Amino acid sequence: MSAFQRSSVDLLHDPVDRSLRLFAIPMAFSFLVNMIYSLIDRYYASRLGDAAIAAIGASDQITFLVFTLASGFAVGTGIIVARRFGERDLEEAGRTAAQAVGAMASIALTITGVLYLAMPLIPSIMRMEPEVGAMALSYMSFLYIGFTANLINFQLFAVVRSTGNPVFPMVVLIMTTVLNAILAPVLIFGLGPVNGMGLAGAGLATACSQISGSVLALWAVTTGKTTLRLRFDRFRPDFGLLWRIGRLGLPSSLQMLSVSVNRALIFVLVGGFGTSVTAAYTLGLNVDMVVFMSVFALGVSVEVATGQNLGAGNLDRVRAYHRSAMKQGALLMGVLAVAVWLFGVPFVKLYTSSPETIDVATGYLHVTVLGYIFFAIGLVTVRTISGAGAAFTSMAITAGCLLGLQLPLSYVLSQALALGPQGVWYGILAGYVVFAFVALLVHRRGTWLAARV
User: Fold this and answer.
1) Residue 6's pLDDT band (cuts 50, 70, 90)
2) Which domain holds residue 92?
3) How far does the chain reach from its first CA to its final CA, in angstroms?
4) How many C-beta neighbours within 10 Å does residue 260 have?
5) Model confidence over 143-192: pLDDT tens digits?
6) Based on the structure, what is the number of domains in the chain?
7) DSSP code of 190?
8) Where do runs of H (alpha helix) occur along 312-349?
9) 163: Cα separation from own chain's centroid
10) Residue 174 counted as domain residue
């Protein structure tokens, strides 16, 4: 048995509270590593000037959009593999994973081709300044060499995690992050016989790191180093299975897209109050994202546990995992909310000395922290529902509470009632509270348990 196999968590038999923590902690660390990965290019690019930072920021918006649309396929795969794993049908789980990896490669290659064809139009569509547009094109032209590998990595990580192994993806992410940190300064600025490539070097460093991670991950899953072994020697596309994966994955993509659109529209709303308010919201949102990494990890963990235990027919454990996730998530968010209330403002002061920005950011943090516990309860509840295969239900709850309530309420409170930025913060808080209650109401009805996977 390999080290990766020994690191798997038994979500079917181990104590619920303990196994949930053992699964979630490496997941949270993976998210942290992923955040560091994205900061590396920004750090080195900042040495090239503000135009380089703006170019990476604009490019990331394009990458995030297309990645969100494609990554739902990986989520759908994970739901099905977890169910088959819980049924102890490892052969079908492996076949499903292999089919999904092959399909993801085709999807990613197609998207990459479209990106390269559309690339010359991106600077004008996004209204970039000429210098920023030129740098963005240079960066993206090398970055997207690794886009297919990036999506394959995401697909493989979802498959391996669905078998109860969160450590393998974390190890691969750490290795690729270290490689990117080594390559980026060399390729950007040059070293010895290597000529500096500027921002293009940042894109190439990321692409090389992603391709290396994909090679390592594919080697591990095809040689039996992970719990599930994928075989491609007799591969033949099963379009019926791929349709089922896509049907589960599409709502996940739309759910993530709704979060992105909601956030972008709130940025537009906040932008009407001036630069200081926009900066304050950006800094406050950064605090939120660091805090929420742990609850995102808990959500993925309970989603996998739900799929496996439904496959094994353990309904009592499905309910126990949901209760445990709510309990542990609420406790953790409560502690972090107190920490943000006490230390969030000193964090903001590390990035700005503007009294107005600090004052607005303080108002944001002191309102939104009141919703942390509600957000955690809502998130783990919808991930329980999606883990059962009721992906459309999960999407409807999330999109409905964000776009249908949080956004319009933020507008009404800030504009119609003239509360200004504070009205936006209250709208965000109300969205979190309603999100939790709606998710719990749908969960209690239990119709999501009848979803077929």
Assistant:
1) low
2) 9-237
3) 30
4) 14
5) 999 999 999 999 999 999 999 888 888 899 999 989 998 999 999 898 87
6) 2
7) E
8) 315-349
9) 19
10) yes
